């Protein structure tokens, strides 16, 4: 064994777990004991010869010569030899434990530094895609999955997405997931966790009471509240409206295709009240809407294609909700009697 090279690789953390175990077992054996003893005594000898030893050897030798006549001869030659052998074995054992201790310390420290560096690297390689009001984007992720991101929304995920298919969502997005059984596709939206293998589903946090709406179009997904084991599964055409603190999880049937019309640029209101309509229009067109007067508690429905202007949308909605409006660049005022 090339001891010096192997020790260097061990201390630098370059050995595999099995190689490191083999090296530690070698250090505990007789061969390593003899090898380390030779290394120590050679180092000791070279230190004395080079004059680097922090002891005044000349002075020490004078003291020994000065008192040598007073030394009594040993009565038995075997006793010093036994003592010498014992001390040598003790020294060898100490050397082995010292090297083992230092090597293990260097090995662990090196591994910890590499782990810390890896964790730091992972923290530094997160990607965030975000849209402002009035913006909608489509993105293809590293694994081939497609994300349609709505206005005023964002997703955050690891750069190495193929091996870590986890996404944090704020706002609304529609996902077309490529199947990969070894790497489940996981979306966390305000504490509601959606897990899928290969499927398509929509998630929206644009709901009242801070709830998250998950709508399944194809395949199957599993939903659970972050930190809890209980879950429900959605089948195509089902939706669930959840929050992290709800005691029970429920699902219901919906027209799933209507839930993703926004990905085609189609604006849809379904019995929307004024607050909901204002929020959607601000997000959709990137404008600010102010309200004057006392609006009635009315609801409106309507579908508008991607070529429809804001003015035309307001014209239609004003007839149902009974308001007049003024457009001043990006600021809209709704006047109620």
Automatic annotation (TrEMBL):
Transmembrane ranges, per UniProt, are 90-108
One GO molecular function term of this record is:
sigma factor antagonist activity
Residues of the signal sequence?
Answer: none
Listed Gene3D superfamilies: 2.60.120.1440, 3.55.50.30
Q: Which UniProt keywords apply?
A: Membrane, Transmembrane, Transmembrane helix
Which Pfam families does the protein's record reference?
FecR (PF04773), FecR_C (PF16344)
Domain FecR protein, chain residue ranges per copy: 132-222
For the keyword Cytoplasm, the answer is no
Q: Give the domain of life.
A: Bacteria
Q: Per the database record, which ranges form the Protein FecR C-terminal domain?
A: 267-334
What is this protein's name?
FecR protein
The organism of origin for this protein: Algoriphagus locisalis
């Amino acid at each position: 064994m090339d001891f010096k090279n192997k020790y260097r690789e061990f201390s630098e953390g370059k050995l595999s777990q099995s190689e490191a175990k083999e090296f530690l077992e070698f250090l505990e054996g007789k061969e390593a004991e003899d090898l380390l003893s030779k290394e120590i005594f050679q180092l000791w000898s070279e230190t004395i010869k080079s004059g680097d030893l922090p002891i005044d050897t000349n002075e020490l030798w004078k003291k020994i010569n000065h008192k040598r006549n007073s030394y009594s001869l040993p009565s038995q030659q075997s006793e010093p030899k036994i003592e010498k052998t014992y001390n040598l074995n003790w020294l060898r054992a100490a050397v082995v434990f010292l090297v083992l201790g230092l090597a293990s310390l260097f090995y662990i420290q090196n591994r910890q530094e590499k782990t810390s560096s890896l964790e730091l690297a992972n923290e530094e390689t997160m990607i965030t895609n975000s849209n402002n009001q009035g913006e909608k984007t489509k993105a293809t992720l590293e694994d081939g999955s497609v994300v349609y991101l709505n206005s005023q929304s964002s997703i955050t995920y690891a750069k190495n997405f193929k091996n870590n298919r986890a996404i944090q969502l704020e706002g609304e997005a529609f996902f077309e997931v490529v199947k990969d059984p070894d790497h489940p596709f996981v979306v966390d939206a305000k504490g509601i966790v959606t897990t899928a293998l290969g499927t398509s589903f929509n998630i929206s946090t644009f709901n009242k009471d801070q709830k998250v709406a998950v709508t399944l179009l194809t395949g199957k997904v599993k939903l659970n509240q972050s930190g809890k084991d209980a879950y429900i599964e959605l089948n195509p055409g089902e939706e669930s409206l959840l929050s992290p603190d709800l005691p029970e999880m429920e699902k219901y049937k919906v027209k799933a295709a209507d839930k993703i019309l926004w990905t085609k640029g189609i604006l849809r209101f379904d019995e929307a009240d004024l607050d909901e309509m204002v929020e959607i229009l601000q997000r959709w067109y990137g404008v600010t809407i102010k309200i004057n007067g006392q609006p009635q508690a009315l609801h409106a429905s309507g579908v508008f294609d991607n070529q429809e202007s804001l003015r035309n949308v307001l014209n239609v909605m004003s007839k149902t909700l009974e308001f007049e409006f003024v457009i001043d660049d990006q600021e809209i005022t709704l006047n109620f009697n």
